[in-house]
Amino acid sequence: MAAHVTSSRSCYIVFGALLVLLVLTVIAAGIENHTLGIIVALLIATVKALLIIVYFMNVRFADWVTRLAVAAGFVGLIVLLAFMMSDYLTRDPVDEIETSPVTRAAPEAFEALALLHPEAFAPGISV
Amino acid sequence: MTGHVAHHFDDAEQQFHAANLGMWIFLATEVMFFGSLFAAYTAYRYMFPEAFVAGSHSLDVVMGTINTAVLLLSSLFVALAVNAAATNRSRAAAGFLVGAIVMGVVFLGIKAVEYADKFAHNHVPGAHFQFHRESEGEHAVDGEHHVSVNESAIPGGDFQAGHNSPDRTLEKRVELFFSLYFAMTGLHALHMVIGVVLLGIVAYQAWRGAYSQTYFTPVEVSGLYWHFVDIVWVFLFPLLYLIR
Amino acid sequence: MTTELLAPPERNYLSAGYTARSWLLTVDHKRIAILYMVSITLFFFVGGAAAVLFRLELMTPEGDLVISETYNKLFTLHGIVMIFLFLIPAVPAVLGNFLVPLMIGARDLAFPRINLLSWYLFMLGGALVMWSTFVGGVDTGWTFYTPYSSTYANTNVMLAALGAFVTGFSSILTGLNFIVTVHTMRAPGLRWFRLPLFIWAHYATSLIMILGTPVVAAAIFLVALERGLGIGIFDPKLGGDPLLFQHLFWFYSHPAVYIMVLPSMGVVSEIIACFSRKRIFGYRFVAMSSMAIAVIGFFVWGHHMFVSGQSVYAGLVFSFLSMLVAIPSAIKVFNWTATMHKGHVWLSTPMLYALGFIGLFTMGGLTGLFLATVAVDVHVHDTYFVVAHFHYIMVGGSVMGYLGGLHFWWPKITGRMYPEWWGRFSAVLVFFGFNLTFFPQFVVGYLGMPRRYHTYPEEFQIYNVMSTAGASILGVAYLIPLIYFIWSLKYGPRATANPWDARGLEWEAASPPITQNFETTPIVTTDAYPYAEDEQRTEETLLV
Amino acid sequence: MNDGFRLHPEQASEIAASVDALYFFQVGVTVFFTVLIFVLIWTFALKYGRARKADRILPPHEFWATELIWAIVPFAIVMIMFGWSAVIFVRGSQTPPNAITIDVIGKQWMWRIYHPEGKREINTLHVPVGQPVRLRMISDDVIHSFYIPAFRAKMDVLPGRHTFMSFTATKPGEYHLFCAEYCGTQHSFMRGRIVVMEPGVFADWIRGSTDEPPEVAGKQLFEQFRCNNCHHNNPGARCPPLGGIYGTTVALQDGTTVTADESYLRESILNPAAHIVAGYKNEMPLYLGQLGEEDVLQLIAYIKTLPSPDATPRSEAENSKP
After folding, report:
1. B145 to each of B135, B168, C36, C183, how far by Cα in Å?
2. What ipTM is given for this predicted complex?
């Protein structure tokens, strides 16, 4: 049987690259920007994962069926994430919590809500 | 080495292919399993970014970084073990596998230290959960700024000023962050434990010289599993420890 | 080990051992299929008994037979048992397990021991569900919606959820086994587009099993964490979103409907081809429509959440995508119907079930469009309309397919023929009992009767009485095959290797097959379904 | 509401008719295709029965054109359905600018409703005809679903987050209100009614100054708040019977007595703990903030009308004296 495995030398090189990327991602965490920070962190993580998959896991020697199986899980995950977030990203902005009669009338019903949206319950509202 | 070919396979190549493909498909299910937790993470991080930053700041980045390096090193050992087994060096493969196992145990040890720290700081979700704003840091005196629920102080159901203060809200949402933290890292740690056992069995077989150029399927397949667990951590680390 | 090809072999897989050990430790896919068959039959009648009980309760608008708590536990039991312990394993784990290796000319599935493990996991899950019932029952509904399941329900949610979790892994292992087997173990010459449609359907099903099941497993895992350890992922008191659970739950549980119905579609394709004595019309389209259903199935889960508080935009997206499932479904139905055109149609028992499947699936599929139609769904969501719809798919579809397949391959599985007259009688009875049970539910659903209601306003009573009457007919109709199948094991006439003169590698093996399925690995030289009319044009499948 | 065999519930909101129109279009499509398939199957089964002679000149195994038609025709039909429904759905999910907002709280297993004018109801929602209404809904515990079949309207009610539902009633009458999302043991009892009123009648009702005497509204309140669960005249009542109590002298736990006049009754409704009747425990919930003065007046008016029980087995019931 023709055994195709990554050579030791390649393994060491890949490991070195992974360590460099690890240092990079820790440094990049200094970026004080939500969106950019996430993108950079995820990009670096993806590159690391790809290095592991392609070299350590010998996918570069694999046939198309195996490659399809490798991709399947990630494609499935993207579907889950994308369509689930299509809901979260397009929901109406968090409720307007007005000081409606209810708020005055049945405060205990709103305890959980008040914990979540304290801004709506300015001090001074009481029965 | 046809002795390794099970009755229903035609030849060793078919068997190797089946085992390899089977493991990859299993890993696809694992991607979806962990992926569900990542999906939960994505939704909540989108909803409560400030709580995730606050929660993340209380995690120890140094420990996390060391653990990532430890895990990457273990992956290197496993890759070298596969290489050794495939090149007729079964004993060497056993050595590399033991190295990977040791790294795995070190990872779990560091994780345990981190968990203990979380317990000590009441950062474990549940009845005793407490969290202080990061500005107060780890040095905040318990109870000083923490707003506790004082049930007796709410007769008639009206709100106490602090009961629903922004701090209290943040605390609740950080509890959510820590719920995810424990669910994700706990599940990951469970996979590590399984992986250590798996590698242990394979290492024992390797030491007995069971593997060679023509038959190293168990090394390859359990290696795939170990690398996958590593990949999960590669994503967990920045998403949990490095939120700014 | 040499045996006559067509006579019942002396040493077949059934006679390979009679001890309990020879069954419980077997790695033979055929024996594991039998283990599954016995187990799911038990579970089917447990779930059915629960259904009969609450249908009797619903005869009257008041809650007079059982109290609300019991009623809720009954429909939960019915749902969990029928879905996780019957419908999902029914066709794949019984017929699929038995036939996939036979149909592709393999000696076994790729991982025989994992196959046995999956049965043990299934039984463990089933035992947990039964345990949860015996210690008091669960009342969350099979959907386990949070925060009711995680915080408020004070029943045995953990046990039942664990049961569902474990059976999920059993299902994953079955799917994994099928995919690897189909990829690596096809007989020489058996190219992808020569595979029977049964295999295509199981391949598509396996895809859903391996990519969908882990998600619901994770969702249930998180509910268990929340319930057991106070790790509140979905807890609204922490700001958690109960809809997140629904997203994860339906990501699996909508495609799960296709896990239940796709294998039955595979069965129907085999039966229609055999009893029309024609190749399935549009073979490649039917094969690809199975794959399309499996893939599109992952994009439509949000139609279970149109009124849940999901965003309007997401509602529209999911509505649009849900509509697309209609297309592969329509292609299948039209192609099956067209297959009968200019065939030699024989209305045998399996064929009656298959035709019943087409009719009921057509209705179930078309009423599914009402639910994909967001404006109408707002009204009928969580009403009996939905109950009727999914029973048309799951009972009218899956169970009809399962029973049809069981009759079709019964001679292959047991080496005995079932009584044909009783078979046809029960097939017709099932069809009428089914329609009487579930058709009135469409009407009462549109009138606004919510599902999972223990008591209901008086004006809905007439429909519920009809439904209960139908359910009792259906119950009897399901008992008849149980009786004559058992009877046939001893008294049924012996079956030849190919009693239907059908095509396909499984009919080349003996009835019942020998343990390693084939004396020699078959070599395939023709496309699937080379029936009579085609014989002039194509060579017959050869046994070399 | 109960007028025999019908195919759809009453159409009592602006979108009801359009939903029904789409529904009947779909019913038509369903009937057409189901009949088509049944007819084809039986035609083929009979015409090409295996023993029958028939023209069986071989058709092709597949035929691209037919497959294409089988894909395109269903696609076109479902796209009509989608477009049609999207229009109705988007229209239904928009709130008209002149809508009044009514708060709804779902709770195992009741609906509490709060009108902006301060009026409160339980399990009943009064709305004026022709007036766009927006419900702002939240749950106290688990997920519920506010469902009015006659309006073709339904929306889940979530804990921790508001959901909204808008409708315009078009036809006066009483309609079902259901909880459609399974919410626990008594899910099927979480029902109520929607009362659609002419605007004038509604205005009177909401002001509470209806022509009807206050005890009528009081009776309704008494039942809504389930007062008679405890305050009944049967033996073993958890709370003092109220029949004929007005004007009598009541013995209290602390040994004093008090005359049951309006102010005593009012105080005992709003803050029951203030005076505990001898022989009873303080079990009644606080209604301060739950009931307005108007409600209290109506309740007292109703209590005044309650007949005195013929015989009171309870020794501590001093009020048996005339």
Report:
1. 11, 10, 60, 62
2. 0.87
